[in-house]
Design a protein that fits this description.
alpha+beta; about 25% helix; about 20% strand
């Protein structure tokens, strides 16, 4: 297990004034309704994504300026994805809709006096220079009436560039965003239409009429009796941001800790490990209830008829619960079994019940106290987006949020393939977390 402690980088970025990129052709002026999965309170935030693209002289002939190429391709792609160029409005009962105004998305052109080689270990999640690489336009953080997508393309001295964005999560999940970015790459490489045409059809994930709850949803439970130690500790202004790499050695070590009778996936092992170590690091009361929520995407799963091209939010976050004392005292397989239990909740009935819950309970947020989320982004495809210069050195979520981490594919500087999980914690908790994670990934003789 490799922890990345990144020092602040010193370089300057010269930015142009942000401008609107509008659809290259006229688009329908209409109002599109989001699904009841899309517009829940827990998705009303911006998702940060970053891609580090190297210079490639063989592919750059006649297209040396990535800013110009991507800006033009963006306008062409927005013809097909025109809702992203609109603004959100809220109707009765907090129902979100997209007013397809065609106003455009915010785009910033920039230049940095550095190279990809100089960035070194910063090319990963939790990049310490992210604020320089994506200008925080005033007002963009508003959910209603604001821009839905913010992009900055920063040219580097080496000929490479950095593509960074923030997207209003209510419009797309990670797979939907990747689909849109591939449409931009299609346009950048000279295609007249995207290889995969987008489909709206958000009504497929709406509540029933009448709505009714048929499942238990621990991820939305309102917690009234709690010591609140986990929640109080997460001061947004006092968090340490780090990424942890799990390569072949770390994965083998973790699996050696498990009984041979246990069936598991790599994702389940990593989530169970990180959740357990995180809970131990917080040193909370043993009777405190803790939760693990895993994002489960519906695309391609049996029983779900989402058509190819749908780019909305198509996932749920079922949770398993236990007492902190039980999680910390039991071996790793206990945590893994709870992760597996959460994942097994996925069914058409469960998804319909989530949509119905949104309508019945007024679109509640996820449970915050003691709840830790890990989103599986290993197969989303951000690392395969090619604007014409080849694949990025790293493409993926830019950073973790206070109680949300992301599991992504990653190749470290030794060229080892593995997974990286960014996490943010209070300083003392981060120290204890690193110690516990090192202990857990240390090679030991199996005793059973």
């Amino acid at each position: 297990m490799t922890s990345s402690v990144l020092s602040p980088l010193v370089f300057s970025v010269k930015r142009c004034h942000p401008e609107f990129v509008r659809p290259a052709k006229s688009t329908p002026r209409e109002v599109q309704q989001l699904s009841d999965i899309d517009d829940q309170e827990g998705l009303r935030f911006q998702v940060p994504v970053i891609m580090f693209d190297p210079s490639n002289p063989l592919l750059m002939k006649g297209r040396e300026d990535p800013v110009k190429v991507i800006r033009e391709a963006l306008g062409k792609a927005l013809v097909y994805y025109y809702p992203l160029a609109g603004r959100l409005i809220e109707e009765k009962k907090r129902k979100l809709m997209v007013d397809c105004t065609g106003e455009g998305v915010l785009f910033t052109e920039a230049d940095a006096d550095t190279t990809l080689d100089n960035l070194g270990d910063a090319i990963q999640p939790m990049c310490p220079c992210f604020e320089e690489l994506l200008y925080d336009v005033p007002g963009f953080g508003e959910i209603l009436g604001s821009h839905l997508l913010l992009i900055q393309v920063t040219r580097l001295r080496c000929g490479g560039f950095i593509f960074a964005l923030r997207l209003n999560h209510t419009l797309c999940d990670a797979f939907g965003l990747s689909q849109f970015l591939n449409a931009v790459s299609d346009m950048a490489q000279g295609l007249s239409t995207p290889c995969l045409l987008p489909i709206w059809q958000r009504e497929m994930l709406n509540a029933g009429n009448p709505p009714r709850l048929t499942c238990i949803h621990h991820e939305y439970e309102e917690v009234t009796s709690t010591k609140g130690t986990l929640l109080m500790a997460m001061d947004e202004n006092n968090l340490v941001h780090r990424s942890f790499f799990f390569g072949p050695k770390e994965k083998r070590t973790l699996k050696k800790r498990l009984p041979t009778r246990l069936a598991y996936t790599t994702f389940e092992v990593l989530v169970g490990c990180v959740w357990r170590c995180r809970t131990i690091a917080f040193a909370v009361d043993p009777d405190e209830v803790v939760r693990i929520s895993c994002t489960i995407n519906m695309r391609g799963k049996q029983g779900f008829d989402l058509p190819p091209g749908n780019y909305g939010n198509a996932f749920v976050c079922p949770a398993s619960i236990t007492k902190a004392g039980m999680l910390c005292a039991n071996p790793l397989e206990y945590a893994i079994m709870l992760v597996k239990k959460a994942k097994m909740e996925i069914s058409t009935e469960y998804v319909k019940s989530v949509a119905d819950l949104m309508v019945i309970q007024g679109r509640p947020s996820f449970t915050k106290s003691g709840n830790y989320f890990i989103s599986d982004n290993r197969h989303v495809g951000f690392g395969d987006v090619n604007f014409g210069w080849g694949k990025p050195v790293y493409g993926g979520i830019a950073r973790a949020l206070s109680n949300i981490s992301f599991c992504m594919q990653f190749k470290n500087k030794k060229a080892e393939e593995g997974n990286v999980i960014p996490i943010c914690l209070p300083p003392l908790v981060m120290e204890r977390f690193e110690q516990e994670l090192k202990r857990t990934t240390k090679v030991e003789e199996r005793t059973h």
